[in-house]
Design a protein that fits this description.
CATH topology of the largest domain: Porin
Shape: rod-shaped
Strand content: 35-45%
Largest sheet: 16 strands, antiparallel, barrel
Structural class: alpha+beta
Mean pLDDT: 84
Number of helices: 3
CATH architecture of the largest domain: Beta Barrel
Distance between the termini: 117 Å
Low-confidence stretches: 24-41, 370-382
Order of helices and strands: HHHEEEEEEEEEEEEEEEEEEEEEEEEEEE
Number of domains: 2
Length: about 650
């Protein structure tokens, strides 16, 4: 129990005892007084007095306890005050401690935040240092790469830079050879339409010729004009000769120009090209783009029978939609150099006509004539340069996907000749001619197309064809374009050709291939009535003399110097020429910075069939000449 409560209880009891004692004292005072002290002293105590005395003693004891309790209370009060002071001091100390703790906590929080900030700064600084080191390493690497690139561009640049254009040289140096079982007296390019028959002297001897004249130089020049790209291309070799340059198929003026053209191209796919280039009839690998033409893998500079091509001056426009990676569609049109080649008219033909003439040396055309096999006397008007009325007009559309290229087009030609009207006489091979010069224009042309597919990564299969009238000029065999009607008007000859190709790349260095091509000129003849006799004139009359096609040679035209290519008494012209060809290319070394070295071998078997004439009844398909050939090549392509 707490001291104040005990003290309060003691005070209550004391007051009660005091009250009781006072009451008893009053009762005692009413009794008679004692007579003397002795009596009082020896007077015995009554029970009340005993009780009162005991109560006094008890009161005294209680008083004593009360005093002790007061002292204890006082002491407790001092202790309480001290405790209160201590508690107050403790509370103050606790408050101070709490304040110090709060201050310490705040300081700790600030220290923590400062530490975190410092850590973040350290991390940031560390990251900056790492990035700086990485950047420094990247800069060092870029410096090394830039130095290597500058050194590579300086020592072995992909292109030369002159003013604002880039110049990329190209070409190759070639050693090549051809062996033919029957001599054509020809270099590395073959005259497919002049294979000798057995009655020709050269039909009994072989030939082996080496050449480096197909070596080539090229230069590609490109310039960025902002909204469009400018390109110029030069390509030349040494296969021309000064006295035989012509406009027939590859306008080969020496130094022989293969291609010389300029081009402007817009990002929208619209392109304009002008100069000498591959004809639009030539199969392309991408759309109708120049420099993507696909030629047979043959060493022969005349390529392959059945291949449609020319290289001649022209002007071309094209528009492409899409891209070659996902799909593209291209249309193009061109106006190209016209020419009538290998005009052939046999039989008793009139002679008062012309469609061209020999070249004018002052105009830098060669003074030369090209007389084809099977032509007879009276064809002296056969010349190199035609008097063209209009260019050959060609249109083509192409579709491309990564696994296929397909193209289809058409060509229009215009052949004009001048003549004095002829009237057959009463005797064979006699005509009377009018005195007024007349002109005639014959329309010619046809269609062409090609499809090339890539069924696997290393295999490509292609087929191309062309058909129409007056198209012999666009074939590798150079069959005749036109013949003559009895009224002396030119008549285009119907012509067909086609070529199949199969190319396989079994390894990175090896390429093997096989081709088959054929070209056909249709028999085109007209009857002429001389009195009571009817004769045939035109291309391939069956009345021509073929009795000597298989006879052995009977003489040498120029004694001691050489034999004859043309067979005697074998007048029919070519009906069909075919050529299967196979071979391989081995690229021994191929490095973009050092060039390519390759070896090349092909084998061909040429067969030329003539239209049948008199004396060839045992060969209904006409006399035939064959010429197996082997071509070899070693080329180094400059990088």
């Amino acid at each position: 129990m707490r001291p104040e409560r005990v003290l309060r209880a003691v005070l209550v009891v004391t007051m009660m005892l005091g009250t009781q004692i006072k009451m008893r004292g009053q009762t005692t005072d009413t009794a008679p007084p004692q007579e003397n002290g002795a009596q009082q002293k020896h007077q015995p105590e009554t029970p009340e007095e005993i009780q009162l005395r005991e109560m006094r003693e008890e009161m005294q004891s209680l008083q004593k306890q009360l005093d002790e309790l007061k002292q204890q209370l006082h002491a407790k009060s001092g202790e309480a005050t001290s405790a209160q002071q201590t508690a107050a001091s403790a509370r103050q100390a606790a408050a101070d401690a709490q304040a110090q703790a709060a201050a310490a906590a705040s300081a700790a929080q600030q220290a923590k935040q400062a530490a975190e900030g410092a850590s973040a700064k350290v991390t940031a600084v560390s990251g900056s240092i790492d990035r700086l080191q990485s950047t420094q390493a990247g800069v060092s690497q870029n410096v090394v790469l830039t130095d290597q690139q500058l050194r590579r561009e300086t020592e072995s640049p992909d292109a030369l830079h002159y003013k604002g254009v880039s110049i990329t040289p190209g070409g190759f140096a070639a050693f090549e050879g051809v062996w033919r079982q029957h001599s054509e007296n020809s270099g590395i390019n073959s005259a497919f339409n002049a294979i000798p028959l057995p009655s020709a002297n050269q039909g009994h001897v072989s030939e082996l010729n080496f050449s480096a004249r197909q070596s080539r130089l090229s230069m590609l020049v490109t310039g960025d004009a902002g909204s469009y790209q400018l390109t110029g291309y030069y390509e030349m070799d040494w296969l021309g000769t000064g006295v035989t340059s012509n406009n027939n198929e590859t306008n080969s003026y020496v130094l022989r120009q293969r291609q010389i053209w300029g081009q402007s191209a817009l990002p929208s796919g619209f392109t304009v090209t002008g100069g000498q280039m591959w004809s639009l009839v030539t199969e392309d690998r991408k759309g109708t783009d120049v420099r993507t033409e696909i030629t047979p893998e043959t060493i022969d500079a005349q390529y392959l029978v059945g291949f449609s091509w020319t290289r001649q001056p022209g002007f071309r426009v094209q528009q492409r939609w899409g891209n070659y990676q996902t799909g593209a569609f291209t249309i193009a049109g061109s106006a190209e150099q016209a020419q009538i080649t290998n005009f052939t008219a046999s039989g008793d033909i009139p002679t008062q006509f012309f469609f061209g003439g020999i070249g004018n040396a002052g105009g830098l055309y060669n003074v030369a004539q090209a007389v084809g096999a099977g032509n007879t006397a009276g064809n002296s008007a056969i010349t190199t340069y035609a008097n063209n009325l209009a260019p050959d007009v060609i249109v083509k559309a192409a579709f491309d996907k990564p696994w296929i290229h397909a193209e289809f087009g058409g060509i229009g030609r215009f052949m004009r000749n001048e003549f004095f009207p002829a009237t057959p006489g009463t005797t064979v091979d006699t005509y009377t001619y009018g005195t007024k010069l007349e002109s005639n224009t014959a329309a010619a042309g046809g269609v062409f197309g090609a499809i090339r597919v890539y069924p696997t990564r290393n295999l490509e299969i292609g087929i191309q064809g062309m058909g129409g009238t007056g198209l012999g000029r666009y074939g590798a065999s150079q069959l005749a374009d036109a013949t003559l009607k009895p009224d002396e008007r030119l008549e285009p000859i119907r012509n067909y050709r086609g070529m199949f190709s199969l190319v396989e790349h079994p390894t990175k260095k090896l390429e093997v291939f096989a081709y088959y091509g054929g070209e056909y000129d249709q028999r085109t003849v007209y009857p002429v009535r001389f009195g009571n006799t009817t004769e045939l004139i035109g291309y391939g009359p069956d009345t021509l003399n073929d009795t000597g096609c298989y006879n052995l040679p009977s003489s040498i035209p120029t004694a001691g110097t050489g034999g004859s290519i043309l067979a005697s008494n074998c007048a029919s012209p070519t009906r069909y020429i075919q050529e299967p060809m196979a071979g391989f290319i081995y690229r021994m070394y191929d490095n973009p910075s050092k060039g390519r070295l390759q070896y090349w071998v092909t084998y061909s078997y040429l067969q030329r069939n003539l239209w049948s004439g008199i004396g060839s009844s045992t060969t209904p398909t006409g006399p035939r000449a064959t010429d197996p050939m082997i071509d070899v090549s070693m080329r180094y392509y400059i990088p």
